[in-house]
Amino acid sequence: MNHFRNILRYAIPYKRFAIGHIISNVFFALFGALSFIALIPMLDVLFNEKDPSSKEIIKKPVYEGIGNLKDYYQDTMAYQVHEFAQDDKSKALLLVITCIIILFLLKNIFGYLANYFMVFLRNGVVRDIRNRIYKKTVELPLSFFSEQRKGDIMARVTNDVSMLEYSMLPVLELIVREPLTIIFTIIMMLIISPSLTLFVFIFIPISGIIISYVGKSLKRKSERVQKEQGTILSTLEETLTGLRIIKGFNAEEKFNGKFQESTTRFYHFSNKLLNRQNLASPTSEFLGILVISILLWYGGQLVLVDNSLDGSSFIAYMGLAYNILTPAKAISRGLYNIKQGGAAAERIQEIIDTPNPLKDKINAIVKTGFDSEIVFENISFKYQDEYVLKNFSLTIPKGKTVALVGQSGSGKSTIANLITRFYDVNEGRILIDGLDIRDLTTISLRSQLGIVTQDAILFNESIKNNLKIGNDNASDEDVIEALKIANAWEFVKDLPNGIETNIGDSGNKLSGGQKQRLSIARAVLKSPPIMVLDEATSALDTESERLVQIALENMMKNRTSIVIAHRLSTIQNADEIIVLNKGEIVEKGKHNQLIANNGVYKKLVDMQSFD
């Protein structure tokens, strides 16, 4: 129920629809109960229990208190029928039937209005939950996703929200309508026969206990189903991403087996869940028939033996009793759905409640420019247990190009992750113009940085929209100029639609070198004062590397650059080269100086052949 209350918080912005829904449901429940009470005078006319032509009832009844409410109501209705119909029973019957039609019409009008308002409330809540999960997913640090399956995150945003939409959120419709229907109906039943109504009060808690017992394990079973959905999506996502490798290594059967194992588990879990759900309807149906049978027996005694209840009132009473069954069954289904949807709500809330260690401080500083230097001050960092950087210190003056080189695992790319604040340092500080980057707003920090990574990450959009991610206000001329600087205009101008050409999923319509030049153009268009190049040429062939290198040199002019390089041929002109080994600086200097030192850098150079 705690998760259900969390979901209800999302309904607050739609309270005007909730108020309209509640008011409509009040009248729906009221007219629903009155429509059965209106049957009594019609039955009286049919069975001659209150003959409208009788002279005994032409006097207007007098209200004598709540204890005499039922007789007062019946006599009033009979009096009104007599006044309208005089001695014509057919006219009396027509009047009563017209009243019943009007009551049912009003009931259904307000029922429609209740559903009308609920559409906006329910769909608004679903939209806001989806938006909240997506926003939190984007905000969370990269460390969160290193421990999660992508498919499981996708399942929470899609399947789990859908589960809420079709299981827990429909309960919002039941919160007012069904309880009010039961309350108004019971009031009418108490007016007709208090002793007969006692059986209803006995039935409700007994049925509640039985229904609770049946639905006890629904949440656990539902949670297993949802987790398995995440596994299925993860396997599918991994398959689509690595399809080239799967085919190349003849691993189709292995992945088929993995996928089928997951779908088989899903099959068994779903069978158990749905069969438990299917038990709800027959259980509540049987309990309803059981109570109706008891009421028929006991009510029949009151009519036929004790003569304390007239036949028309008893028939109307049975209609009211049946009127309770529908909302009672709906409430029992709602309780099942809350249990089932609870697992989905818990998985959704788990993401929403995940703390963000990289959240901006209160009164964080907005950095609007870069003036003097970047300082790494005795920083140490570890992803898990072992430090990948140890007491790393470095000063990068404005306008200088600093290259970081070293073997794989030496901590080069970690520097890029820390300066962009994808992770926070464990010890030490990173300063820009003397300000700790943890004291800056994340947006203003990253607005000072342009990033080009080893994998050219592009989106299924046009070239123009891919480039404008970091600069929405750029004109087409700005986009073309950035493409020229990145040495990419030469192939973009020959594409069918130029900068409006869609490049496909992950830019798969382009070659590796073309994709990398577009990612460089994207950084150029953003025009930040600091560039971070994380092995931007390591995945390219020699010809593509030459073109990209020219683009990089164009981009780095008059900018402060941190270049993380695997291919040492790309950083010979750097102002300073930092050589890392196991997270520590072992050498630093210019290319020729380091070659002359005949140390670690010289060994790295000797292992690579230069053009």
TrEMBL record:
Molecular functions (GO terms): ABC-type oligopeptide transporter activity; ATP binding; ATP hydrolysis activity
Main location (coarse class): membrane
Record keyword Mitochondrion present: no
InterPro entries according to UniProt: AAA+_ATPase, ABC1_TM_dom, ABC1_TM_sf, ABC_transporter-like_ATP-bd, ABC_transporter-like_CS, P-loop_NTPase, Type_1_exporter
SMART domains per record: AAA (SM00382)
Ranges where the ABC transporter domain occurs: 374-607
Domain ABC transmembrane type-1: 22-340
Topology of the protein relative to the lipid bilayer: Multi-pass membrane protein
Keyword list, A-Z: ATP-binding, Membrane, Nucleotide-binding, Transmembrane, Transmembrane helix, Transport
Compartments, record wording: Cell membrane
Residues spanning the membrane: 21-43, 92-114, 174-192, 198-215, 286-305
Cellular component GO terms held in the UniProt record: plasma membrane
Nucleotide-binding is among the record's keywords: yes
One of the Pfam families matching this protein, by short name: ABC_tran
Protein name (database record): Antibiotic ABC transporter ATP-binding protein
Origin species: Confluentibacter flavum
Lineage: Bacteria, Pseudomonadati, Bacteroidota, Flavobacteriia, Flavobacteriales
